Give the backbone structure.
Amino acid sequence: MRPRILVTGIPGHYTRLANGAHGLSVSYSERQKQPETKEEFLQELRNISNTGNYLIGEGALRAIAPHAKQVPFWHLYNCSKNGLGLEEFNANFDICVFTCANLLRKGLSADAEAEVLSKLKMPIVMLGIGLQNRRDLENSLPEGTKRLLDVLKEREHYFLTRGFETAGFLKDQGFSYVQPTGCPSVYFMPHNMRASLKKLPHVNVGKARTIFSGYLGANHDTIVDAQALAPESSRPQYVIQDEFLHFDMKVEANGDGRVYDSASGSMLGELSYPGTDRLKTAFDIRTFFDTNQWRAWASSMDFNFGRRFHGSIIAMQAGVPSLMVAVDDRMREMLGYTGLPAVDATDVDKAENRAEFVADHLAGLNASELTDRYSDRERTFRSALREIGIGQ
């Protein structure tokens, strides 16, 4: 008999339309949101914190058996805290898949996760779990996260990690079923992912219409990227993920009271962030709350040069050749496991001619090896899901 699968944790973009839940039932609005005022736009960002996270929930749900039921984490948490409890879920499900990201990090205490998972009396699959910086965790693991790990030690558990470093950390904590598989977003639309890899050696750097992603408002790295790689007389394209929440990027409404155009994903009004004076041509900045809209727009572009992992993955899902810039340990772990094409930030930043550096790197790539490595990792991921009993 197939297991009854509960999926929760990081959601896909579809949960934006959830307007209520009772027991096992979740209701969804038929009206698409149009968060065009400043207040509505920023609240929509706060709801997910980082729009790239939508790819995690989407990729997980697509990879898991189709009879799985997705329940928003906030509903489980509310049931746990308001006295209703989770017995109805325990009676109707056999296993829980908890989709996550860099959950193991110094600045995050996983109190809510520990609260909910302690009351779910079933095996738990921690899908896509990763760490931010192992040295930080070895010195000061947050109390809520310690409790979460203790909860998981008390029952059958499965850790499918973002890479080898997280797997090593969890094994050192005494966990038995730990397997690196990468982020589930990497295996969504695999045919397009492979197509993007095959195109990489043929990118015409400096003339290709390029998508940029990074940390506008925090540093000038992406500005320098755009100056070097964007075609002359064109507006460089930049996609927002969380810059308005966590970095020094601001927006003010235009004369119509709008900061955002829902149809195109374009930012309106007055945008400001450090480094704008360095740009010859201002970025054309977009935000997407719907991953289908994001991919559709990305598919019209020629190349992605990204300092954000998921901002680059979604371009690859659209078949766009992408080269990532590894900027931190979290990203290096994911790239190191998957073998997706990347250059390290230190190497890019010290290159005398950034366009030549990128062009030379792309020309030296072996597309067949890249696609073979990707296909091998995809097989490992899907085999792990089937082994646990939750795969298609």
In short: The longest strand covers residues 124-129. The two ends are 14 Å apart (CA to CA).
